[in-house]
Amino acid sequence: MNTELPFAGLWAIILGGSSGFGFATAEKLASKGMNLAVLFREPSGPAKKATEALAEIAAENNVEILSYNLNVLDNSSRISFIDEFGIPDRLGKVKLLMHSVARGNLKPLVEPKGETGQHSLLTVEDIQMTSYAMGNSLLDWTRDILNAGLFHQDSRIIGLTSEGADKYWDAYAAVSIAKASLQSLTTYMAVEFAPYGLRTNLIQAGITNTAALQRIPGSDKLVEIAETRNPLQRMTVPGDVANVIYLLCTDEAAWINGALLHVDGGEHCR
């Protein structure tokens, strides 16, 4: 094995890779020789920019990167992608499935006292959509890729959660519910998919100033708190998470399964 390119010939499928954690992971894994299928849902302008940036990464690292602008939450889109991607040369080659989908409803449960008709309130339908998008869709993707015979004999399934799954953040209830569900799902997937060679883990990143974070009401306060709270005296950046995902893909990490890994420089300790 080329120790500089340990993943040559293998593939990662990244759900939500146009920016943030997904894009940083694509950069890191490409530098280690891994080919990538990067899926995202963006308007034409940002999609073009992401596709061009990924093409540059592919050329710089002499790897193959396939970009797909599609709705990863749509059953027919998922099936079509797997049919198109699953050519014989890629069977048994998918080393990583990364779930980095950031699509959810950010609404309060109830009107703040003294205010009337000024807020759109969270509905059960909002919760159901967010839970599937940011949590349970991982199960559909994992099962379909497994059934297509695409996973490597020693593969990784990695999801992302946040501190907002356990603590109150303004208007974050639907996402918090989704992430809590994803944490339980990770436990069960770690057990039931293990006989197929899949290790399933969840990363809780520190507060990171991504586009997804900026959509959360009061995110500027979260950023301010993170900058002073972190023991290493800086915020988490997407590259920190990408580095850990790379480590989890190595042979040495094969015994990590069903874990919730804090990738935050110790931020969660305070």
Automatic annotation (TrEMBL):
An MF annotation (GO) of this entry: oxidoreductase activity
Recorded coiled-coil stretches: none
Keywords attached to this entry: Oxidoreductase
InterPro entries tied to this protein: NAD(P)-bd_dom_sf, SDR_DHRS6-like, SDR_fam
Database matches in Pfam families: adh_short_C2
Family: Belongs to the short-chain dehydrogenases/reductases (SDR) family.
Record-given protein name: SDR family oxidoreductase
Organism lineage: Bacteria, Pseudomonadati, Bacteroidota, Sphingobacteriia, Sphingobacteriales
